[in-house]
Design a protein that fits this description.
alpha/beta, six-stranded antiparallel sheet, five-stranded parallel sheet, 17 helices, 15 strands, flat, disordered C terminus
Length: 433
């Protein structure tokens, strides 16, 4: 490590002193003392052990190779196959000196093994990605149909108390838990539960595109909806009006929030669950997929002391992620940054975040009026839903504030009574130039 100039001689001496007292590994001590990062530790270990060092975050993993070893073996031994090199199977390990595991992997796959090293938490993440729940959603839903199918033959005959009981049955709980878990591990932004004439379709939105995941008999639909409503603390008895709810779960050692919406359709209630996974939020602008030239332009725009930056795109395209990343980029102690959102999806340190509440007439427009009296430098408006909000936001941009917001075109189809046309053209000029 010293030869790579990761640490100074003084830091090494200090770490060696701690090692003599605690007998803990030198790499662990250096990392805990903050002298080096995890990557540097594993790079050095790889060189010393004659193993490959693989950054799993950026490595293109072969899905077929990843499934060559059983899930139980991978979890117990903290290993995962990721590809091949010169005919040998690359086995990423937390401990590449474990010859017993290497020999067993050779016997189980019938392949020569080339050991590589990576942090155990990264290996665990990849295992979770490539191995789903032990039973598929389809298998569990078939079990539900077999057990409860006769009882659920006619949705209208099921009473509210019976629906609540069904929503708390083990097979239904397992089915809902399974497709939620699969959605999180697949990196989905939304889960759609859609009732049709004779079936219920389950779809995930991944990278902005909806994918069919599973389907089951429409007889199971009431029980699935009831389970989701119980989780979201929504009214099971109300099936004629739209409802909103939310819940939070712990999965893979992290907290994931869900925002739930129900909508009555002719075949029953359609459910959409928005997944708000804070660990998946990218807050570095250079990792969002901007072209280099576009990134330079965008950074130049958000560094203006005043004006308006509007983002547009379909659901799941990354508007919120880009806005949060922009705020994170420009945030510094000298600035007063305030957001107004519905709801506050992610909490950002050092930024004042406000959640509107329509039930008490605390709308975007009313919140913006109050924020303008809070001496803000930068304002992020979660949604521009009406002309009044648009007018206040534009006025703020013209009076020495930087305003960031998603862009809703329908607002501009209405006449801007309180805001002259030349003012709006000036905003567009600031955006373009």
């Amino acid at each position: 490590m010293l030869s790579h100039k990761y640490i100074t001689p003084q830091q090494l001496e200090e770490a060696l002193k701690v090692q003599r007292e605690t007998r803990v590994g030198l790499g662990v001590i250096l990392e805990k003392m903050g002298f080096i990062g995890t990557k540097e530790v594993y790079q050095t270990l790889a060189e010393q052990l004659g193993a490959l060092f693989i950054e799993l975050d950026t490595y293109l993993i072969d899905p077929q190779a990843a499934l060559l070893l059983p899930e139980k073996f991978c979890r117990e031994r903290q290993v995962i196959p990721v590809g091949e090199e010169n005919g040998a199977l690359i086995l990423v390990m937390a401990n590449p000196t474990d010859v017993v595991t290497i020999d067993r992997a050779r016997l189980m796959t019938g392949r020569e093994i080339k050991a590589a090293i990576a942090p155990s938490e990264e290996i665990e993440r990849i295992i979770n990605t490539y191995f789903g729940a032990k039973e598929s959603v389809n298998e569990i839903l078939r079990e539900v149909e077999e057990k409860e199918g006769a009882f659920l033959e006619e949705t209208k005959e099921v009473e509210i108390g019976q629906l609540k009981a069904l929503g708390e049955e083990a097979p239904i709980i397992q089915a809902v838990n399974t497709f939620i878990l699969q959605a999180i591990r697949a990196g989905a932004s939304d889960i759609h539960l859609e009732p049709q004439d004779k079936e219920v379709r389950i779809r995930f939105r991944i990278d902005g595109i909806l994918h069919d995941i599973s389907s089951t008999s429409s007889r199971v639909h009431p029980a699935l909806v009831s389970r989701i409503k119980i989780l979201s603390r929504m009214d099971i008895a109300e099936r004629r009006l739209p409802q909103d709810g939310r819940f939070q779960i712990r999965v893979d050692n992290r907290t994931v929030d869900f925002r739930v919406s129900s909508l009555p359709t002719i075949f029953g209630e359609k459910i959409v669950m928005r997944i708000l996974d804070k660990s998946a939020l990218l807050l570095e602008l250079d990792k969002l997929g901007f072209e280099p030239d576009d990134l330079r332009k965008f950074i130049r725009l958000i560094k203006y002391p005043y004006g308006m930056v509007l983002l547009t795109g379909p659901t799941g395209s990354g508007k919120t992620t880009t806005l949060y990343s922009a705020l994170n980029f420009i945030n510094r102690p000298a600035l007063n940054i305030i957001t107004v959102e519905d709801p506050v999806e992610y909490q950002l340190p050092g930024i004042n975040q406000v959640q509107i509440n329509p039930k008490i007439d605390f709308s975007f427009a009313n919140a913006l009026r109050s924020i303008m009296r809070q001496d803000p430098d930068i304002i992020m408006v979660g949604e521009i839903r009406d002309r009044e909000t648009a007018e206040i936001a534009i006025h703020a941009a013209l009076t020495g504030h930087l305003v960031l917001s998603p862009f809703i075109q329908t607002v501009l189809r209405e006449p801007l009574s309180a805001c002259k046309k030349w003012e709006f053209l000036l905003i567009l000029y600031l955006l373009l130039f």
